[in-house]
Design a protein that fits this description.
The chain is an alpha/beta fold. The protein has helices at residues 10-15, 43-53, 79-87, 107-120, 137-141, 148-162, 204-210, 221-238, 272-284, 301-312, and strands at residues 22-26, 57-60, 94-101, 125-130, 168-169, 177-178, 194-197, 213-215, 245-253, 262-264, 267-270, 289-293. Helix 7 (204-210) crosses helix 8.
């Protein structure tokens, strides 16, 4: 039985520990339940606060184009530019992207950007990667939505090749690398940790072999346990190290600690008692990180973060 994760960089190593669960926060760190576009007010102060309070990771999303039908414009800022800014304003927290829609970006630019943030943060970057799920964006970038799974693999191969000195890469839809040029900077550590979101049009076998971890959506405990078990079994037959599993969770945290939980979109309205119980259950089935999203949170954001840090984080050894 595998009993540890590979050591990759500071962000990955601090966020993911075998057999443990850590807690992160999704940006925007605000309530914007009544519309798709956040105000992005007090975002820097709140980012500094979650860094100081001991949350393990900050997660931004890649939303290249605002698609009204999708209903969420994310943090609106370019994720790499924004993380470069936040790298200079924080000290410990991992800087995660969940996730870059690889077919919509040329991998040269992704490599350049992610490696830059990795250096500026001294190895705190975690790169989530995905095939993308908003079909409306693909015509705007000249990419084929139907074949996005193939494009995803080609981009992944390009990114991994770019981590080598003067790389060679043939038969790739994004271009040819013939060893006469290099892509700089290289990752701060041995490589950029890349976690696949959902299936990204790939098989579980491909994800187990190639990803450094797996991000999946909230599901029932039974469904999630089966997915994690299947994935980890595949890893154990082909890989040297185990690999982490993480999921997001929307919460509306109520001050009353024993508030009876209620379902909300992809999450729960609850007090700290049930939230701790839920997170302990997720940990027991093999999850290593939960990224909390406060979009529907009705209490003051700063108070919610303080309450989470006081009551929830101490329950998990990785925090």
């Amino acid at each position: 039985m595998m009993s540890r994760f590979q050591s990759i960089n500071t962000g990955y190593n601090n966020t993911f520990k075998y057999g443990e669960l850590s807690i992160g926060i999704v940006v925007p760190i605000e309530n914007y339940a009544n519309g798709p576009i956040p105000k992005m007010e007090n975002h820097l102060e709140r980012t500094k606060l979650i860094d100081q309070l001991g949350f393990k990771a900050l997660w931004l999303r890649d939303v290249p184009l605002h698609v009204p039908a999708f209903g969420d414009a994310g943090q609106t800022f370019d994720p790499f530019t924004y993380l470069g800014f936040l790298a200079g304003q924080t000290e410990q927290i991992a800087l995660g992207i969940s996730s870059i829609a690889l077919p919509l970006h040329h991998p040269v630019h992704v490599a350049k950007a992610v490696n830059t943030v990795d250096h500026l943060s001294q190895g705190r970057i975690i790169l989530g990667i995905a095939s993308g799920d908003r079909a409306e964006e693909y015509p705007a970038t000249g990419m084929d939505y139907v074949n996005r799974g193939t494009s995803f693999r080609h981009s992944y191969q390009y990114l991994r090749a770019s981590e080598k000195d003067f790389p060679h890469l043939d038969n790739n839809q994004f271009g040819t690398l013939n060893g006469s040029m290099d892509i700089l900077p290289k990752p701060y550590g041995p490589k950029i940790p890349m976690l696949v979101t959902g299936y990204s049009q790939q098989s579980t076998e491909w994800i187990a072999k190639n990803a450094d971890g797996w991000m999946y959506y909230p599901r029932s405990f039974q469904q999630q346990e089966l997915k994690i078990r299947e994935w980890r079994q595949l890893i154990s037959t082909t890989q040297k190290y185990s690999k982490p599993f993480m999921q997001p969770l929307y919460i509306d945290l109520i001050e009353q600690s024993d508030f009876k939980p209620q379902g909300i979109h992809l999450g729960i309205r609850t007090g700290t008692d049930f939230l701790i119980e839920y997170l302990q259950s997720v940990k027991s089935i093999g999850a290593n990180h939960v990224a909390l999203n406060l979009r529907f949170n009705n209490n003051k954001i700063e108070d919610t973060l303080e309450l989470l840090a006081k009551k929830v984080l101490p329950q998990f050894h990785n925090n």
